[in-house]
Design brief:
Number of strands: 7
Strand order of the largest sheet: 4-3-7-6-5
Order of helices and strands: HHHEEHHHEEHHEEEH
Helix content: 40-55%
Radius of gyration: 19 Å
Shape: globular
Largest sheet: 5 strands, antiparallel
Amino acid sequence: MNSINKRQAGILISVIDEFINTNTPVSSNSLFLNYNLGKISPATIRNDFSVLDKFGYLKKQHFSSGRVPTIKGYEYFVNTLLNEAEKSIFENFNNFDYFERTENLFENFRNIIDKLRLPGIFSLIGSKSINFKSGLRFIADYEEFRDRNYLGDFLSIFEDFEKYQRNIFEYFWGIDRHLAVLVGDNKKINKKFKNFSAIFRFIKDRKNRKGIALILFGPHRMNYRQGVKSLSEI
């Protein structure tokens, strides 16, 4: 098992926070100067970088000594966020209130989209499924979308979301959580998702087999911390 200790976990989380903010490979010196990691020297950070590289949580860019997160690193990061966020959700067993106030819920979700500057989909799932899409304009904020192929793949998923709705529906009912994050998909929904990430908030009425999915989409380098927090509070 590729286990890491508490100090290494803290370094990994700091690297991911920094990379999400800067889109620049993270060096040991930048962590030492910009993050409160306790009594840890740059040499110790470099040693822990090597451990995190070995276990597949970070990788070294060939042109730089800095590190960037891998899919495995992002997954460790988001699982930490999800475990904390799930504790804060006290969902009423009778979810009918949610379904009676979908308009208000949608407006709250649109506010989150505008605040985080991420594209999102509000999906009503049931005998008839309806999707409302918003925030596509925010992809201009991300350097990743300067690649035309990357942009084209994302637009294909976002605009043709209905093609993937059945897989979303099955995934939606197959997990016993209110929140989920997919990083690179891992074939849970569709292989086209491999270069992107999605944060899900699920509201379920199991008795009538219907539900609401609030979905934030973006590149792997998206603001998971604020996305998970915002959706957990909705």
